Write a sequence for this structure.
């Protein structure tokens, strides 16, 4: 019946082929989720199968809405970027205000944790490095570098005060997450748009030289500030301190245990909600692991992961004749790499990132502009 409706809509030109293909993929993905959930509940008795299923559904819902709204010409990519950067600015401003409120002693970081967990339902990572310096990391931080990337790629006025202010504000919000992958993603998502402008614009070289000079001055200030004993200790702790060593060791342990569990059911895995009962990352979200891709291999097996990778890679649509397509593909790969460091790929925030990349590739295919780049 659904096929008949789609054929009818195509015949009267009410819906285009791209939306039909996406609908078919969506149905296939839903079937995949159902099969993985059945495997988790019926064959493996996982108590958290439906909780993890809800994570996938929330991510897929955001992707579906973004793509359909774009296809129905209700929202263009540039409009999506403008909405996203406004949201990122508001979120970053609140986060920076909270950071400095704690730093100057106006509020206690324990009160912030209580509000986030009990009132907002968030699961923050907040570490006290002493002297008022607090690590504030939330799952939503994962989207900030990529919103910044889409805002900057092809931007005509990279030297404007507004653009620099946005970079500094959002960049600071990323920095105080004290997450090394977020630091890397943030730098990547600022540097690559500068390179793109340098290559594609006649005045790009001049812009890039100016931006590099500004970056050198900024790094010089950071270096000067880092000579401060407090800041130096914090940076040292996050890069090579005891906490970081423990964090890295936990990831190594996860890889060992996940591989061991995978070997027991390599083809179909433990199903949705699967977890290692003797080695859980979190009792609140026992099915989530920092090494998320290996976690999915343990849960969905070789066959399930083959299907999952097809869905993930189907987002990419590279046109090598258009450099912006290549740059966006590189950013997408960097986003997928996050699945080796943080369990944030599948969430509403993760769905927003996937959706933005999907709409971006579709916009390039349809020759729509992205941030002033053709």
């Amino acid at each position: 019946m659904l096929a008949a409706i789609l054929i009818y809509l195509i015949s009267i030109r009410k819906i285009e082929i791209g939306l039909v293909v996406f609908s078919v993929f969506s149905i296939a993905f839903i079937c995949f989720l159902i099969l993985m959930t059945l495997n988790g509940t019926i064959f493996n008795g996982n108590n958290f199968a439906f909780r993890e299923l809800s994570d996938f559904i929330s991510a897929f819902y955001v992707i579906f809405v973004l793509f359909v709204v774009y296809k129905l010409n209700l929202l263009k990519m540039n409009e999506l970027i403008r909405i996203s950067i406004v949201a990122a600015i508001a979120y970053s401003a609140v986060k920076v205000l909270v950071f400095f409120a704690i730093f100057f002693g106006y509020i206690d970081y324990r009160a912030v944790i209580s509000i986030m967990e009990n009132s907002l339902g968030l699961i923050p990572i907040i570490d006290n490095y002493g002297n008022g310096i607090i690590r504030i990391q939330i799952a939503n931080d994962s989207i900030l570098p990529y919103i910044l990337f889409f805002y900057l790629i092809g931007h005509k006025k990279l030297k404007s005060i507004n653009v620099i202010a946005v970079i500094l504000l959002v960049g600071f919000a990323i920095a105080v997450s004290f997450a090394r992958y977020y630091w890397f993603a943030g730098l990547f998502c600022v540097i690559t748009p500068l390179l793109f402008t340098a290559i594609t614009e006649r005045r790009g070289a001049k812009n890039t030289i100016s931006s590099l000079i500004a970056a050198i001055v900024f790094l010089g200030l950071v270096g000067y500030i880092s000579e401060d004993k407090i800041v130096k200790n914090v940076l040292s702790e996050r890069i090579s301190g005891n906490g970081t060593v423990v964090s890295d060791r936990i990831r190594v342990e996860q890889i060992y245990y996940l591989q061991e569990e995978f070997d027991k059911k390599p083809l179909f895995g433990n199903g949705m909600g699967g977890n290692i009962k003797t080695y859980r990352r979190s009792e609140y979200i026992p099915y989530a692991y920092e090494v998320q891709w290996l976690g999915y291999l343990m849960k969905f097996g070789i066959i399930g992961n083959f299907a999952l990778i097809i869905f993930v890679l189907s987002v990419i649509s590279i046109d090598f004749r258009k450099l912006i397509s290549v740059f966006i593909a590189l950013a997408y790969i960097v986003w997928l790499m996050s699945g080796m460091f943080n369990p944030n790929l599948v969430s509403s925030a993760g769905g927003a990132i996937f959706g933005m990349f999907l709409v971006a590739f579709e916009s390039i295919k349809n020759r729509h502009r992205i941030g002033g780049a053709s």
